[in-house]
Amino acid sequence: MNLEVSFKIEVVNAHSLTLIQTTREIFTCSFAFDAKDSLPV
Q1: How far is CA 39 from CA 1, 33, 36, in A?
Q2: Residue 13, class by beta-carbon neighbours within 10 Å (0-12 exposed, 13-18 middle, 19+ buried)?
Q3: How far apart are CA 40 and CA 35, in angstroms?
Q4: Which 3 state secondary structure label does DSSP give 1?
Q5: Between the CA atoms of 25, 31, 37 and 41, what dihedral angle is there, to the nearest 10 degrees?
Q6: Residue 6 burial by Cβ neighbours in a 10 Å radius (0-12, 13-18, 19+)
Q7: Angle at 7 between CA 5 and CA 8, to 5 degrees
Q8: Handedness of CA 27, 29, 31, 33 (dihedral sign)
Q9: Cα dihedral value 17, 18, 22, 25, nearest 10
Q10: Which tens digits make up the pLDDT trace of 6-35?
Q11: Using 50, 70 and 90 to split pLDDT, how confident is the model at 38?
Q12: Burial per residue of 20-38, b for 16 or more beta-carbon CB atoms within 10 angstroms, e otherwise
């Protein structure tokens, strides 16, 4: 029982980390694109 609960918590934490990383990458990419578009080339 206790092992099952800790395993579920680990899975949730892994999903949260992946979500945070993905969100950060999306923001970084969109920010890079915005900066590139706004540069007067």
Answers
A1: 57, 10, 5
A2: exposed
A3: 10
A4: coil
A5: -100
A6: exposed
A7: 65
A8: negative
A9: 60
A10: 889 898 888 898 999 999 888 888 877 776
A11: low
A12: eeeeeeeeeeeeeeeeeee
Distance CA 28, CA 19 (A): 14
User: Residue type for 32, please?
Assistant: A
What values do phi and psi take at 39, rounded to 5? Answer: -70, 130
